[in-house]
Amino acid sequence: MNAIDNSKMRKDDIALGELMSILSGAKDSPLVFYYDGLPVKPGYHVTEVKAGQFSALDCGANPEAWSEIFIQLWDIEEGDRTHMPAGKFHAIIRKVTEHVKLDDTAKLTFEVSDGVQPMQLYCAAIPTLRAGALHVELSPRPASCKPRDRWLAEQSQSTSCCAPTSAARCCG
What we know:
The protein is an alpha/beta fold. The protein folds into 2 domains: 2-141, no CATH class; 144-172, no CATH class. It contains 3 helices and 9 strands; from the N terminus they run βαββββαββββα. Strands 1, 2, 3, 4, 5, 6, 7, 8 and 9 form a 9-stranded mixed beta sheet that branches. It is globular. The relative contact order is 0.24. The model is unreliable at 4-9 and 166-171 (pLDDT under 50).
């Protein structure tokens, strides 16, 4: 089974270890996630953190295996709460590690819902500190064709004049 190299994640992905490292440097700063162009409400909750080991067969009949961590955010308004400090989010994730093995290099996926709309999947960009708060942009996690993605990555690394000019075919 081919393992997916998590060091080659999309540019708008961040691994758990990298996120935790950044959070530890700004523990008192409010942590504000943004999705669909809007910030999460100040009362948001981290409702679940789960780790998965996945095995699959892609559309090119290639076996795949990877680790992924899902952090579920419930985007609600609750009383006079403010956005969670980065240190509290950090502590929640560290608490999870007492019970669940979390791979710091695993692909990180956020599941977000307001409790009314269906849960949506997002990847997280590197947090930025501005105006005293830590901001994390979440972008929709698109589907992809792994054989095509591998071919495109190979093409971008190839400087040979003899490189093939057509994409590798996938079965989909």
